[in-house]
Write a structure and sequence with these properties.
The protein contains ten helices and three strands, in the order ααααααβαββααα. The chain is mainly alpha-helical. A hairpin with a 2-residue loop joins strand 2 and strand 3. It is elongated.
């Protein structure tokens, strides 16, 4: 049996574990009839238009799977399975969700692309300074600079960016991208 401190190391910077913990916290708050937690259920399509009384009634039937779906949708994924697939490092991802959306990035110009080949070629044709990051938003790709990364609440000088080759879609080091996903999730908590 693993000790608790050993388990902490196993889950350190694991974005999927982070969402599971968030779902567990949400579930506990729902069980205590927390009004804020109840309102969060409205991200579920079937409860989008539910009034407070309906949410209180439905809360008794909410299971962990529903809470996983809520936290996944709050982070820009269509479902829990979508979040697990993307955050799990699968290489066949065609929709990255909206996790890399920066609400406070107004005025930052980015280059947008429909195909990875175009985005990759454009990124490689740019000078090294300032650094250019190839990111994904839903089914689209964008090349952006350090200001956008900062708007995401992330450090543009984090060594994990170099480890992925500044390429979110096809990272050199998938574990580094997983750590960056985790850092983005943590930044969203603030």
């Amino acid at each position: 049996m693993m000790r608790r401190d050993a388990l902490a190391g196993v889950h350190a910077m694991d974005p999927i574990h982070e969402l599971k913990v968030r779902a567990d916290i949400l579930h506990a708050r729902l069980e205590s009839n927390d009004g804020g937690a109840l309102a969060r259920l409205r991200v579920l399509p079937e409860l989008h238009r539910a009034d407070d009384a309906t949410l209180r009634t439905k809360a008794a039937d909410v299971r962990r799977k529903h809470c996983l779906s809520v936290v996944a949708r709050e982070c820009g994924f269509a479902s829990w399975e979508h979040a697990r697939h993307v955050l799990g490092g699968h290489t066949d991802v065609d929709d990255f969700g909206t996790l890399l959306h920066a609400k406070n990035a107004g005025g930052i110009l980015n280059q947008w692309f429909a195909s990875y080949a175009e985005a990759f070629a454009a990124q490689r044709s740019l000078p090294d300074r300032p650094r250019h990051y190839l990111l994904a938003y839903k089914r689209h790709l964008l090349i952006t600079g350090p200001s956008f990364v900062e708007a995401l609440g992330m450090d543009p000088d984090d060594p994990d960016w170099e480890a992925i080759g500044w390429d979110w879609v096809h990272p050199i080091d998938a574990a580094a991208r997983s750590r960056l996903y985790y850092k983005r999730l943590v930044a969203m908590r603030r």
